[in-house]
Amino acid sequence: MTNDRRLRSVDLARLAGLSTQQIRNYEDAGVLPPAGRTASGYRVFGEVHRRALLTYRALREGYGPVTAAQVVRAVHDGDVPCALALVDAAHAALHEERVSLRAASEALEALAREEPEPLPGAGGLRIGEVAALIGVRTSALRVWEAAGLLTPRREPGTKYRLYDPADVRDARLVRTLRRSHYLFEQIRPVLDGLRREGSGEALRAAIAARGEALTARTRAMLAGAGALHAYVEYVEEGP
Questions:
Q1: Range 136-141, long-range pairs (CB < 8 A, 24+ positions)
Q2: For each successive 10 residues of the chain (239 residues), what is the average pLDDT?
């Protein structure tokens, strides 16, 4: 690794718009390779450190700080295959998110177009029956109700929950969205949209927003991977 240009902590910090303490933290964490020291003990950085820092920041945009740090540490440890395996794993996980989103989109669009189906029994279904019907635990239905996502009516006298066809449809939607890692606050407008004259606009908007976020992350990961490729080549060239 070459160090043609001598940089102080403050010089490197200014180049990256960071504090000198952050630079020291990055070196301690292995995000930067070990710095040299002057006779008086001050850190001395070079071109390799500048490139390492820029590579980490490029990786962080798409892969997140934890994976980005693991990747550059592996490079500094001389384990490039490990660094590339981490990159591969991140891309595989992103692909799975896309597959899951596509499946959720197809399932939700189909459900959104459906009219609530008649249920067995004129008085509606109890919580255990709904749980068995859609494949979740009764505790999940209670949590969703506590979050305001489901509003089953209560049976007079016994106060048992009774789910009508629209309630079951909503429970199916919540189950599908939760399996796609949607948060409650993201699910609520989807349900609200469906309840307003059966509109699926909120549902489509939520899916489109998630798709746009995945696309932005993919672009950031491509940029980070390009920076990593250049850095690995620079490191492997040696002094």
A1: 136/171, 136/175, 140/175, 141/171
A2: 71 90 94 92 92 96 97 97 98 90 77 68 85 94 96 92 91 87 84 75 82 96 97 88
